[in-house]
Amino acid sequence: MRKFYKVLICLVAVLMIVPMVVSCASLGKNKDTDTDPVQSTDVTETQTEVETDEHGQVVIDNTELRDLDFNGKTIYFAVRENQYKREWFAEEPKTDLENKVYYRNIAVQEEINVNINYNSVKSADADKCKNLNALIRNVGESGMGGLDVVSHYAAFASNAALIPYYKNWYNSQLTYLNLENPYWNQSFISSAEAFGRLFLCVGDVNLSVYDRCHVVYFNKALAEVHSDTVGDLYQTAIDGNWTADVMLQMVKNVGTYTNSTSGDQIYALASIKGSEASDGFLYAWDAWLTQEDNNGMHTVVTDADYTKLSNAFDLMCDFWYESGGAHLLAKSQENYDFFTQGYALFDIDVLYHYDSGWKHLNEITDGFGILPLPKYDDTQLEYYTGVQDAHNVLSIMENGMKSDFDMVSAVLELMCAENYSTVRPEYIKTTVKGQFLDAKSGECFDLVLNGARWDFADIYAAAVGGVRNKLWRTPFQKSETASQFSSSYGENAGSLNTNFSEFDTWLATQY
Predict the structure, then answer these.
(1) Would you say the CATH fold of 214-386+460-494 matches that of 63-210+390-432?
(2) 367-424 pLDDT, tens digit each
(3) Where are the chain's structural domains?
(4) What is the DSSP string of 203-222?
(5) Could you confirm whether domain 63-210+390-432 is CATH 3.40.190.10?
(6) Which of 67, 168, 180, 49 is nearest to 113 (CA)?
(7) Count helices and strands in the chain by DSSP H and E runs
(8) What is the pTM of this model?
(9) What string of H, E and C letters represents the secondary structure of 136-194?
């Protein structure tokens, strides 16, 4: 049976800025079956008050952790270069967010008396991060130490040749890790667990996870022009009525037309023809690539899950190829230009590609807002968010006696705690300021972050053969007027299942 994410409540605690106490109330009622009904009428139930900080986040007591002293020892990180290192450090902090990250690092170093050393490593998509991979192998094979934590490209971190050098995050040597705390991403952990082991993790330090959440942008000026058709978009989402049918009908109604003043061609919907246009829908619609049996073994989906995946693919094609109002572009910069210059009412993209693009987006004269991807239908209770696989994931190096795992676990735990308290609120403030800073947009932004989720096939894509590419992205890119899903599934399911079986067996027996 497919592994579902453990509970939405944990996910809310990880990604949301509203108090955790609100979420925990939905965990269920007390079942006092032995209580006399008459007596129970005289009992007044009390709830434990949960302390929250100025941002509405639950306060976590890390007093014991903060009293540690590691005598100035150095912890060594290898992190991806360019914009992917911004969650770790900046050579010359200039923005408010960069300063928050800088002072987070200072706080961790001073509180537990450690020195943090960051090694920025070239890790390009085109070469599948060969430099970072080589560093992991060299350190792992030599056993000489010098590397404790790796912040790797999610699409390539799960290479089966690398996992033997990663430490199990559940290992008792990692004394100070508490993966149940709200600054560890429970959604990712739930999908990354395999046979009681966890080799990759996502914590609150990984701002790149938020960066790569898929969202629906909308042009406020065009939304006003078409207000009779689209109504109050924020309120529609907040009320839970933002579904695929509702959005698709809006796209069809707006369609494609020529602006009577400028003569420009205007589209209802735009995106980048690749992961941006397709991946968000996969998870927004509660469709899955992987299922798991009672023994923990994985395969591609079958039966009802296959039908849901196939139907979701066809619905996605309706948006892009059949609606009469959609336009797909080749590159992210082209898409930024297209949307910011007012050529599309809706645009599907990730929250942040790179800093210049984000500044460009914030300069849009028409104003813009952000919505979650729509639900599959009105029976789906929650909004879900697909996360593009360009974000960072964490692994801990298994270097025997060369690593101080007490120190490593304490640094990671405290860094996530500090990030949770100071950096994440600044990230959210920075991201929701300016063009769309109002109460409704803030609620919609929360809906996006709350829904982030992963599939086992994505987390271990490098080990099992790129399931999402073969069953979702590639057939979408090949499709023009009809679904290519069934043929792609037929061509690839057998070999993918072989990959799953081999990888599962290896995981179950290797450690």
Answers:
(1) yes
(2) 888 999 999 999 999 999 999 999 999 999 998 777 899 999 999 999 999 999 999 8
(3) 63-210+390-432, 214-386+460-494
(4) BTT-HHHHHTBEEEEEEHHH
(5) yes
(6) 67
(7) 24, 14
(8) 0.84
(9) HHHHHHHCCCCCCEEEEECCCCCCCCCHHHECCCCCCCCCCCCCCCCCECHHHHHHHCE
Q: Which two tokens stand for residue 291?
A: 């299922």
> Which three-class secondary structure string do you get for 225-244?
HCHHHHCCHHHHHHCCCCEH
- What percent helix, strand, coil does the chain show, rounded to 5? 45, 15, 35
User: What residues form DSSP beta bridges with 271?
Assistant: 328, 348
Tell me the C-alpha distance between 306 and 444, whole Å.
30
Q: Which helix (H) or strand (E) holds 43?
A: none
Q: With both helix axes pointing from N to C terminus, report the angle between 424-432 and 96-112 in degrees, rounded to the nearest 10.
A: 180
Q: Nearest Cα to 447, choosing from 346, 369, 353, 358?
A: 369
Q: Which CA distances in Å does 248 have to 89, 254, 255, 314, 409? A: 42, 10, 10, 13, 47
* Amino acid residing at 207: L
225-273: per-residue pLDDT in tens? Answer: 999 999 999 999 999 999 999 999 999 999 999 988 888 999 999 999 8
Per the CB < 8 A criterion, the answer to whether 162 and 133 are in contact is yes
Which is the CATH superfamily of the domain at 214-386+460-494? Periplasmic binding protein-like II (3.40.190.10)
